[in-house]
Amino acid sequence: MKRLMIGILAAVVFGCESSGEHALPGGDGGADGSGDASAAGADGDADADGDADNDGDGDTDVDTDGDTDADADGGGDAAGDGALPEETLCDGLDDDGDGQTDEGCDDDDDGWCDENMTRVGSPAACPLGGFDCDDEDPDIYPGSVIHQEGVDYDCDGSKEYLAVFTISVDDLLVELCVNNAMITPLGPNAGSWPYADTYEFVLKSGTNVIAVHGRDTGLHISAFIGTIEVDGELMVTDGVMPPDGGPDAAAYTPSDPAWDDTAWRYFPTASEGPEVDWCHWAFDDSLWGPAIRAGESGVTPEDHWGELGSAPWNFFHCVPDAGETRCPADFIPYYEDAVPGNEPKWIWDYNPTSLADAWFRRKVTLP
């Protein structure tokens, strides 16, 4: 009986092995029919996942992140740092593995890295620095002085505008200041008030300040006149009429309706100058009084106060046929044209005959 059972088992075993070789069409002798020695799946390689590493992700490395590198970060790079597929660093390396170095770092070839790229060290692609706010224009980069109107060409976050300021000061222009920076040198007519000088400087988007320090060398009066052209707008010096009551009247106070009627403000104290930051845009000038049109009480008609004339503000408009030999010629066109209200006025502070110096400032806001 024992011999019979052994014989039956042997027949079963050998019979299955023999028939197995003919049961799988195209078989390779492996248990999964794939030509390999694994028994987990019919995938044609030496493991169970379609590659040679048996990690379940279908690629040829030994990690499970689905790319072909061995860093397991899923970034598709070989460095293991998770870099994005496109170039984002300016570091002198081929970070995206495309055979190019630092592409997109400096498209305008001005030596400055695009602000949207991360600069590492001092790469050859952009050795001058980073933060180029327009990498398609070689004239735009941090610190550029190549003016482009209404454009942030120096990448400081503000647009730039060219301002043209024509000014005449009676008797002496001591300081011309823009945004806390003194303009130097002053023009040749800074000490010759019947003539004007023209200055050009750059203003920025937001609040700017233009400030004038004049001196009366003859101890009689201190006044000035001027025009500002910027961003297509003409701004002329102008002021309010002096307080009623003549020289003995009290100066305007913040409660007076005329206090805010002019953009030009004057420093109200005669005995000392203003604070050192009087030209800064953030300086508090809320107690500086409104500039006043220059004129002589009882002599010049009120509607002509501040206008140019022989004294220089008596009787006449500034026109050539009126015999005005002491009138700055730069301002004549404003009195000859047909545009009402664009005539610049001579302005002074509240009590100009007792001041040797006068300080004025005006804010200019740009988009």
Structural class: mainly beta
Assembly level: single chain
The name of the CATH architecture of the largest domain is Sandwich
The first-level CATH class name of the largest domain: Mainly Beta
Helix content: under 10%
Number of strands: 16
Mean pLDDT: 80
Regions with pLDDT < 50 over 5+ consecutive residues?
1-40
The run of helices and strands is HEEEEEEEEEEEEEEHEE
Shape assignment:
elongated
Count of helical stretches: 2
End-to-end gap: 109 Å
- CATH third-level topology of the largest domain: Jelly Rolls
Major sheet attributes: 6 strands, antiparallel
Structural domain count = 2
Estimated share of beta-strand residues: 15-25%
Q: Kindly provide the radius of gyration, computed on alpha-carbon positions and rounded to a whole number of angstroms.
A: 42 Å
Quick description:
7% of the residues lie in helices and 22% in strands. With 367 residues, the protein is mainly β.
Could you explain the architecture of this structure?
- Helices cover 7% and strands 22% of the residues.
- It starts with a helix and ends with a strand.
- The protein has 367 residues and is mostly beta strands.
- The protein is elongated, with a radius of gyration of 42 Å.
- It folds into 2 domains: 85-143, no CATH class; 160-366, Jelly Rolls.
- The protein has 2 helices and 16 strands.
- The longest helix has 22 residues, at 2-23.
- It has helices at residues 2-23, 332-336; strands spanning 89-90, 112-114, 118-119, 129-132, 160-170, 172-178, 181-182, 197-204, 206-215, 223-230, 233-236, 265-266, 289-290, 292-293, 347-348, 357-366.
- The strands form 4 sheets. Strands 5, 8, 10, 11, 14 and 15 form a 6-stranded antiparallel β-sheet that branches.
